[in-house]
Amino acid sequence: AWTPGWSVFCLVLLTVALGAQALTPSHHLSLSDVDRLKGLLSQPFTDLASAYYSIVGLSKLGASVADENDACQFLKAQLDPMSVDSLFFAAEASQAIADCEVSIFNETRDILLAAVSEDSTVTQIFRAVSALSSLGLPLASQEVVAALVARIAKEDNVLAITTALQTATRLSQQAELGGILEEIEDLAARLDDLGGVYLQFEEGLEATALFVTAAYTLSDHADTEPPLKEDQVIQLVNSVFSKKSWDSRSEAFSVACAAAALSSNRFHVPVIVSTQGPATVSHSQPILHLLVTDILSNPLASANLLVESAQAVASKSVVLSQAPFSLRNGIFELNFMASQPASGYYQFTVAVTGDSRLVANQVELKVKVSTEVAVTNMDLSVVDKDQSIGTKTSRVDYPFKAKGSFTADSHQNFAMNFQLVDANTGVELTPHQTFVRFHNQKTGQEVVFVAEPDSKNLYKFELDTAERKSEFDSMSGTYVLHLIVGDATLENPILWNVADVVLKFLDEEAPAAIQSKTLYMPKPDIQHLFREPEKKPPTVVSNTFTALVLSPFLLLLILWFKLGANISNFSLSPSSVLFHVGHACMLGLMYVYWTHLNMFQTLKYLAIIGSLTFLAGNRMLAQKAVKRYGQSSTLTFFTRSTCEN
Amino acid sequence: MSNSVISVISRFLEEYTTKTSNKLKVVDAYLFYILLTGALQFLYCLLVGTFPFNSFLAGFILCVGAFILGVCLRIQINPDNKGDFLSISQERAFADFLLAHTVLHLVVINFIG
């Protein structure tokens, strides 16, 4: 029954299920990536800035420059005691080298302190403060805080605020760092979320990496947890470590600092769980090996790995629950085959415990259990369709071939029954690929069928010779029979030549030649048949009828003559002559239209001739009308006068 | 029965030859000519076939159209119908006849192919 309580329970379950799908890092620095980073930072440096990036960057990664003494001499030689930047680079770099001290003058302190004011940029303040702190010179933290707060208000960009955060890490813990700490949250809000996977500043990788460094260094210094959620941390990890080759030394330096900050701060340490090679176990290799490292691929000191659940993907049954891994030589091991899983894919949910700082410590893994397949009970038989003659079944053992060949003509079916079992456990298997291949050695024809299992997982294949003749092109002959078995979870795919099968098709259905050979030859030309002109009647008939149709005209002339129609009243006035000429021209134009012109040309000529004819005709008819009215009026006068009488 | 038909026909013919004016008889002769031409075209079509059909249609419609225009002209110039056509003089009727014929010819020649 669908009660409200049940639906609430389902909703809660759904939320829990969705929440359990936590984000895990998709990028981190593998050992080769770390080496590449160290390589970039180890390149020879030519000025103080690159020396600073190299020396300090390498020290963050736990390495050092090739020749420390040389580096120290270089710093001392390049130092310009009047420049804040120069002092900063030299002081910071010398701190990273053991037994390297940069000499200072009396004026140094004054120069550096003078740089700490509201009028210098945040970068200047940062460099001055860092230099002062590295050189062991005293500084007034509260003044710095005031200057920083004032500068943040003026320089409201990401890089400036990040630099301010970095400056705050050098100040005394007693100073009022609360206001600056709040900037972390404000800055985090400015990050762009890309697809829920990446979180980065639009200013780029370097800005994001420097932000991560500053946020965690300051949080450690002020002993306050940074206001970043787990998902945000993972997204930042993805953004910073997705790039595996860096454009400049400063970019490499920022990534090295971020990596160091994320692997050893007091609050959030992202953990990476990875497999050594493909995650596959089998009877020969029953142990699943997993590595648990931080983002620099250093193994975590105190970590315990636990399988929360291992669920078969196909059947959704839970095979393992709450099983711990054992640690051996820095690698976590679990003998998964001890749980006797069936072959297939398993969804593992593993949890890393042992440190409260760990972030993304619940990881989902897909593990494949592979096995070996064995073909058993392979029976080949030729079955008569009407089942009058008993079937002849022969058993063939893998990998041998059947002794005789099997003959099947159109009255018989060729049948194959077999079972596929797991070689180790005897459980029936249904691999993805179970094909039966017929290959005609003479013609090169190859026909492949699929063998299907029935409800009891017994494979049956039946070839109805008459029904399938189109696939074989009705070519009778000896076909070599192969059984092909394959699957992603099988370690031993099978290609087994089982037997020879002689197939006989009815010969009259066999095509003349093998179709495939002529498939790519030019086909016969198609002759285009133009539309036949319609049959015309013989010319005699047409001519007769033409004469016949024109004959009434003669009749008309005769009739008119008999009626006494004449042109005696024809007045030779110019308008009447023009009218008749124009009219004749119009009729002539009709003929020319029929033979030569198109409608537009005709209309053009018609307009010219027609208007002339019209004007002339109008004049002529008017004259005629006048004449007629003149006549009729005299007639009326005459009639009236006679009537009066 | 046949007697009355013959007597009607002979009476009609007599009236026609005496009562109708020459002008109208001229037009009637023209109409008869058009009729014959159209009938002969139709006969050809029946006997020999409709190829080319557009030509047959053009010719036949010309005959039909000319016949109709001729009839209109005859009606309009008949003095007995003067009351119905007060605003149309004989010359005007003839001019209309010519104009309509021009359009008819244009269309037919276009269609004759």
From TrEMBL, chain A:
Its main location: endoplasmic reticulum. One of its GO terms (cellular component) is oligosaccharyltransferase complex. Residues 29-263 form the Ribophorin II N-terminal domain. Residues 377-503 form the Ribophorin II third domain. Residues 1-22 form the signal peptide. Subunit of the oligosaccharyl transferase (OST) complex that catalyzes the initial transfer of a defined glycan (Glc(3)Man(9)GlcNAc(2) in eukaryotes) from the lipid carrier dolichol-pyrophosphate to an asparagine residue within an Asn-X-Ser/Thr consensus motif in nascent polypeptide chains, the first step in protein N-glycosylation. N-glycosylation occurs cotranslationally and the complex associates with the Sec61 complex at the channel-forming translocon complex that mediates protein translocation across the endoplasmic reticulum (ER). All subunits are required for a maximal enzyme activity. Belongs to the SWP1 family. This is Dolichyl-diphosphooligosaccharide--protein glycosyltransferase subunit 2. It comes from Oncorhynchus mykiss.
TrEMBL record, chain B:
The keyword Plastid does not apply. One of its GO terms (cellular component) is oligosaccharyltransferase complex. It is a multi-pass membrane protein. One of its GO terms (biological process) is protein N-linked glycosylation. Pathway: Protein modification; protein glycosylation. InterPro entries: DAD/Ost2. It is found in: Endoplasmic reticulum membrane. One of its GO terms (molecular function) is transferase activity. Subunit of the oligosaccharyl transferase (OST) complex that catalyzes the initial transfer of a defined glycan (Glc(3)Man(9)GlcNAc(2) in eukaryotes) from the lipid carrier dolichol-pyrophosphate to an asparagine residue within an Asn-X-Ser/Thr consensus motif in nascent polypeptide chains, the first step in protein N-glycosylation. N-glycosylation occurs cotranslationally and the complex associates with the Sec61 complex at the channel-forming translocon complex that mediates protein translocation across the endoplasmic reticulum (ER). All subunits are required for a maximal enzyme activity. Belongs to the DAD/OST2 family. This is Dolichyl-diphosphooligosaccharide--protein glycosyltransferase subunit DAD1. It comes from Oncorhynchus mykiss (Rainbow trout). The lineage of its organism: Eukaryota, Metazoa, Chordata, Craniata, Vertebrata. The gene is DAD1.
